[in-house]
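Problem: given the chain below (383 residues), write out its structure.
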Amino acid sequence: MNNVQKRHVFYLSGFDPRGASFYHRLFKEEAQKQSKLNKIKVNIGARKKQSQYAQSWAIEALDEGQAVSTHYEFLRWDDIIRQHWVKSFWSIFIDFLYVSWVYITTGTLKRVAQASRTPAITGLYPAVYIAVSGILAILLCYASLAIFSAFNLSWVGWIIGLALFTAFIYSAKLVGDRINVFWLLRIYAFTARWAAGDIKSIDKRITLFADKIFDTLHNNQQDEVIIISHSVGTMLAVAIAARVAHQLDRHQVKQSLNMITLGECIPLLSLLPKAQAMKEDLAYLSAAENIYWIDYTSPADGACFPLVDPVKISISEQQYKSSPLLLSTRFYKLYTDAHYQTIRRNFYKMHFLYLMSHDYLGEYDLFAIIAGKYFLKERVQQK
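Solution.
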């Protein structure tokens, strides 16, 4: 098999309001660190605007003496994320009530827990934090009222109590933002609204991205095309890939699409009763022959569904034909023990580890996949 000389990579971020500038900087820093391990020399170009919803950068690499050019295109949906990135504690509390109602009354939380206890337990993190914060704030207010009432100064107790309540809630919000506790709640709320059809702009954006990827495959100017997605971006990738697969079938395009999902949380959406479109997309991908799908997760990542088949648990047995190739990143083998233990204490960083460099070489190397000379399928079969 000939090696790759030209590659086109499309990237979809997770539910992150930070846009292309952050991810370009992250990729450049981490790829250069990883190059010391995998010995692939990389030169990463400046970020350029492709369109309103896409930015790109060129990657020129030298892998075992062979030159490889990769066009890396960042597909933007951070504007949609910012529209649904609630900030005030009151808005967060409303989302908490909404998420609790939707996921509990529809039985989705139970189905999520049956699929994997990891995201179900992690999902309780913001609920517990908000509940404990609210109880402690109320107790502070009550203590103030009780103390001052003993001196017949209940009105002073109310004033100071309400001030303490407000100050405690405000502090809890600041701390919650710092430890990223509300990030998970925002994800749950977004997926629930997506399933209910309340994210009006998402379908149009998915169609736009699917058309762009299909055109790239149809023009056949590169050896390999890969769509890489992370976290909530994996949900968009499924919808996009299903539409691309439809067009590839209809136009009889020979080149197939490679898809990599990292830290996927697709069942958060697909297990909701109203998420019929996502179920249909997964069913279509299950039968598609022009999509090569690899799913990388880690059991140590509390924000994903580790080694859970998002297709099989989301559709009926009659619809099911095949699944993505489920692989573990085995992060514990890629870092020194001390470094890994430090990372494990930060669940937010753990979820972003898919996009970062390592201490040791291992089977998982995102930067070699993107810039190296081997085709994705060939690289995986070699491991």
